[in-house]
């Protein structure tokens, strides 16, 4: 099985109240080195067999039409998740 990751973030000009809350909490917990946090969404799409260019194209289409709201969000990444990266993120 192959995996495709789609990353979506609020547009820079859109207020991110979740990100503001997180940065405030980080500061209260002693992590004052962080000046801003933007919170987005990550989708992991699974396909049968290896990821092909057709899968990636379909994922890009789904990202821009279904997985994100283009008025307030940007799709910032659509890529194949390789096994090494999957192990690191676990």
Would you kindly provide a written description of the structure presented here, covering whatever features stand out?
With 90 residues, the chain is an alpha+beta fold. The protein has one domain. Helices cover 38% and strands 27% of the residues. The chain is built from three helices and three strands, in the order E-H-E-H-E-H. The protein has a three-stranded antiparallel β-sheet with strand order 2-1-3, with helices on one face. It is elongated, with a radius of gyration of 16 Å. It starts with a strand and ends with a helix. The model has no long low-confidence stretch (mean pLDDT 93).
**What is the CA-based Rg, rounded?**
16 Å
Detail the poorly predicted runs: none
How would you spell out the order of helices and strands?
A: EHEHEH
Q: Classify the secondary structure makeup into a structural class.
A: alpha+beta
Number of domains: 1
Strand content: 25-35%
Q: What is the average of the pLDDT values?
A: 93
Percent in helix? 25-40%
Largest sheet: 3 strands, antiparallel
Shape: elongated
| Helix count, DSSP H or I runs of 4 or more residues | 3
Secondary structure: number of strands: 3
Q: How far apart, in Å, are the first and last alpha carbons?
A: 17 Å
- The largest sheet has its strands arranged as 2-1-3
């Amino acid at each position: 099985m192959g995996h495709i990751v789609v990353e979506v973030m609020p547009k820079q000009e859109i207020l991110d109240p979740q990100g503001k809350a997180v940065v405030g909490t980080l500061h209260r917990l002693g992590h004052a080195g962080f000046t801003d946090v933007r919170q987005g969404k990550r989708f992991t799409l699974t396909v049968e067999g290896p990821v092909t260019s057709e899968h990636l194209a379909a994922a890009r289409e789904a990202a821009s039409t279904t997985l994100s709201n283009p008025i307030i969000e940007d799709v910032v990444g659509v890529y194949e998740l390789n096994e090494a990266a999957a192990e690191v993120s676990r």
